[in-house]
Design goal:
The complex is a heterodimer. Helix content of chain A is 73%, strand content 0%. Chain A is mostly helical. Chain B starts with a helix and ends in a 5-residue tail after the last helix. The mean pLDDT of chain B is 79. Classes of the chains: A mainly alpha, B mainly alpha.
């Protein structure tokens, strides 16, 4: 049963007219930057990878500007709220893995050396154009599906922070946000993404630290620990405790938010492709490691602060808690907890800056992702199908049209998809449709000479099994605990899918080897 | 459990401290990198114009 919403009076937000002005000025400024950047766009390389001219520090800023987005802040805060301090393990493994990728150059260095702009382009180099198109279709579908809940998160954040209580307000906010993002992504491409990411990184980095400091000053450290202890017990601190995350979930996080999010996920790989040289790539990962860690730990900490605040304010049988003191609210409600908490503790002016920073972060993530999927659809699906005979002007026009159409789909999905699991788990599962197969294809394609076209196709197909991790589908396929008698979680399905993809790659490569080794594969086999 | 509490406290403090330092360096250095990016793109366009080539 959801938490007793009637038991809690409507919260009055501190958001004022001054805060609206701050948000307005910031957003208009961002659109102007997009218009300004348009003058640097002369070809597809400028539009997609900013002419491959990014140096180390701006690469770090733009990588973190994209990856520390509003959506990340929302879903990681939700994990802190629902799982306590144990959720910090996600940030820890994300940071450590990113640093290790920077030190070893695993996947990213040979990928940059290959000179490709996108991951499917690598598939094409290594396994042929058929695999490129097939892989790109899976990637685009999974990526856009993954992005489908971003708008909803942003809508919930803004309405909660500003105190909008009308149920239609979330949809209205989503329409306005997607219109703004589409306007400047379509106009400016990667150059505008780089500039806005840089500005957003500064606002968000210092804003997040400041907000955490305010939250601790307001609540104190000991009450936070006591609340988590009372509501979650040992599982609120120990990530290996079966009552909370458990070992399989931790392993799943090491793979998804550790290795995949920094070395396989296309938007992160785009930064690799846009880097000036291999030295920049390695520095980018070493420097970004702390950002990959922070993007989870700080928002999770805010989620814990929200948990403590609402427990102290409302107690059991309230908006978020059942009569026994357990967390009983729906996924949408627990997503709202962190912004509702901020709306109560931040003073006028500061709350406007935080809203502007978070909105900017949302736009920063959205523009990178829209650009990435559009580039993949044009460069890796349409262009190869047309035999590469597309002019620069046609490519740019198509990319802009696909950005627009993707935006419309995202709006529809955000409005109609019934979210029945934590957002982080939805993102991991929908992303897994692509990355479980992509991981096998990339790793074996880069490091195993005998990897074949048949193996690549089989690995990509196996990744589709990850769909079973989405709660509505799991119910439809009768894969729930009631049907099976065992609790088959998102983590189990993800790990099974990854193993299947790797197995498929190895078995089919051995059974159906390529007749002739490809010339283009040779440079990619070099290891840093 | 006390061990975990101490461990997460140290993790949080360390993360925030290092992140503040990295953010400062990236904020200052990134500004110069943005300037260099514009310069590089302009130069590349000039070279393309001079050679009459067009990047696909």
């Amino acid at each position: 049963m959801p938490g007793n919403m009637e038991a809690s009076p409507t919260l009055i937000s501190n958001f004022s007219t001054l805060d609206w002005w701050i948000v307005g000025v910031y957003l208009v400024g961002t659109v102007i930057i997009g218009l300004y950047a348009n003058r640097y766009i002369k070809n597809m390389a400028d539009y997609v990878v900013a002419g491959r001219s990014l140096k180390s520090l701006i690469s770090v800023a733009t990588m973190l500007g994209s990856e520390i987005g509003l959506v990340t802040v929302m879903y990681t805060a939700q994990k802190g709220f629902t799982n306590g301090f144990a959720a910090f393990h996600i940030g820890l493994v994300a940071g450590l893995t990113c640093f290790l990728v920077g030190v070893t150059g695993f996947i990213v260095v040979p990928l940059r050396r290959s000179g490709v702009m996108t991951i499917p382009e690598f598939y094409g180099q290594r396994f042929g154009q058929g695999v490129r198109v097939f892989g790109a279709i899976i990637l685009a579908v999974a990526g856009i599906l993954n992005m489908g809940v971003y708008l909803k998160a942003a809508g919930l954040f803004i309405t909660s922070l500003t105190g909008m209580t009308d149920p239609a307000a979330v949809n209205l906010v989503m329409v306005i946000l997607i219109a703004l993002v589409l306007a400047y992504t379509i106009l400016g491409g990667m150059v505008s993404v780089v500039i806005t990411d840089y500005l957003q990184f500064i606002v968000l980095a210092f804003g997040m630290v400041f907000v955490c400091w305010m939250a601790v000053a307001k609540l104190g450290w000991d009450p936070l620990v006591q609340t988590v202890q009372q509501l979650h017990g040992t599982a609120g601190f120990d990530p290996l405790d079966g009552g909370g995350f458990g070992p399989s979930y931790v392993l799943w996080m090491i793979f998804t938010f550790g290795l995949v999010s920094c070395a396989v996920w296309p938007t992160a790989v785009m930064r690799v492709c846009a880097a000036k040289d291999i030295g920049v790539v390695k520095r980018l990962y070493k420097w970004s490691a702390i950002g990959f860690m922070t993007r989870f730990i700080l928002p999770q900490f805010l989620g814990i602060c929200a948990l403590c605040w609402f427990w102290q304010q409302d107690g059991a049988d309230s908006r978020f808690f059942d009569t026994a003191g357990g967390i009983a609210a729906s996924s949408d409600e627990t997503l709202r907890a962190m912004p509702l908490f901020l709306s109560q503790i931040l003073p006028v002016g500061v709350i406007g800056l935080v809203a502007a920073g978070m909105l900017a972060a949302f736009m920063s993530t959205h523009d990178s992702y829209l650009l990435c999927w559009a580039a993949i659809i044009v460069e890796d699906i349409i262009a190869p199908l047309k035999g590469g005979k597309l002019s620069t002007k046609t490519r740019l026009t198509l990319a802009r049209w696909f950005i627009f159409l993707t935006g419309l789909f995202l709006l529809a999905w955000s409005i109609f998809y019934p979210m029945e699991q934590d957002m982080l788990d939805y993102l991991a599962v929908s992303g897994a449709i692509y990355f479980t197969g992509a991981f096998a294809v990339l790793v074996f394609g880069l490091y195993w000479k005998r990897a074949s076209r048949a193996g690549a196709v089989a690995a990509l197909c196996a990744g589709i099994f990850a769909l079973a991790g989405l709660t509505p589908l799991r119910k439809a396929l009768h894969l729930t605990q009631e049907d099976l008698g065992v609790n088959l979680t998102e983590a189990h399905i993800g790990l099974i899918t990854t193993s299947l993809s790797v197995l498929a790659m190895v078995v089919f490569s051995l059974l159906m080897p390529d007749r002739e080794p490809r010339e283009t594969a040779k440079p990619n086999l070099e290891v840093a | 459990m006390d061990g975990w509490i101490l461990f997460w406290k140290i993790t949080l403090i360390t993360t925030v401290t290092i992140f503040c330092g990295v953010s400062l360096v990236v904020a200052i250095g990134g500004f110069f990198d943005v300037k260099a990016m514009f310069k590089d793109i302009d130069e590349e366009h000039e070279e393309e114009q001079n050679s009459g080539d067009e990047t696909p």
